[in-house]
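Exam revision sheet. Question 4 asks you to relate a sequence to its structure. Input first:
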Amino acid sequence: MKRLILPFLLLSTTAFSQSNLKPAIDKKATSIESKVIEWRRDFHKYPELGNQEFRTAKVIAEHLRSLGMEVTENVAVTGVVGVLKGGKPGPMVALRADMDALPVTERNDLLFKSVNTATYNGQETGVMHACGHDSHMAILMGVAEVMASMKDQLKGSVKFIFQPAEEGVYDADIAGAELMVKEGVMEDVDAIFGLHIWAQIEAGKIGYRSGPFMAAVDNLNVTITGTQAHGASPWSSVDPIVTSAQAIMGLQTILSRNVNITENPAVVTVGAIHGGIRHNIIPEKVEMIGTIRTFGDEQQALVHRRITEIITNIAESAGAKADVNIGKLYPSTVNPPELTAKVLPSVESAAGKGNVIAMPPVTGAEDFSFFQREKPGFFFFLGGMKKGGDPLITPSHHTPDFFIDESGFLLGVRTLSYLTVDYMEMNKK
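Answer key, structure tokens:
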């Protein structure tokens, strides 16, 4: 069986990397590198929260129109979609960049430091591109310019998806990629590619994983109700605090005894517990909230089931009642192994084989997964750490000191462009 499969893979992956447009891509991408950096700095200075990306969307839409694209605005609230029709028949390749910033007050002393503030969940806060979405947009705008310069030679069409609210919004049940899918943005797409800048990988390198790459993320909300009593006579109570403590410890057995961690990890974290108001009163109820991270639908179902069973049964054994609610947010980001095998030569061609790193699963989450649920999609990390940097001390994503080395942007433009033309070459009509 292996002898039959391996030659097939070799043939298919070789064919995938044969577009003759790559020299032209390299030349054009290099010529606009400074523009990409300029766009990123502009977005960084004027960041906007999810579903509020009004200025951002205007800049993007104007750029796409200047390249002769069909542009649709206000997709999934503030999203922008541009379609570049190639000169030859072929597949529709989608490329995605997220647009939103975070409620974080920047500490970096930059000439293009964020100047924006906003009200988030009733609180005044600074706004910062603390996850690198500014770089994603700038890179994709660069790819759009590269692809437009060779429009007549493209063996297919390209859909540029600029997506709002990847980080989620507190005042809507559905947003971002999920809402874009619901509005039909993926209906005419054959495959989709996307990237995420990564602060713990050196600039000039790319990280990827075949199969489950990033975790599904779900919210956990638990209320344990007991019987209130005086703290001096605990025997007359059903203590929800003690019961909650037992439940929290019980949850740890899911990861140590139920999940096959040799395949993929999982995370169950209780992030807050609230109960009681006075030192000598055993309260009636305790509320807990937490986050769940899993890889793949089967593991997700297992972990969800065990959370409910453990908390419910521990509460019942104490004479208390547990109300367990699990809210699904993003599914796991999964790179299909077959597609990954086919696109890997393109990635290696862009970065150099020694600069492409197979990564372990990442317990962070990405709503790019909603696009992958509709059509085959490949997602990868683009290095954003200065060369020679230490990933252990480099400020991570979602922090006030988050910083990106711009020298890796050119690689991002080249890689997405290579993936696009190679996919077209392989699926030409």
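Marking note for examiners. Residues 216-330 form a domain with the Alpha-Beta Plaits fold (CATH 3.30.70.360).
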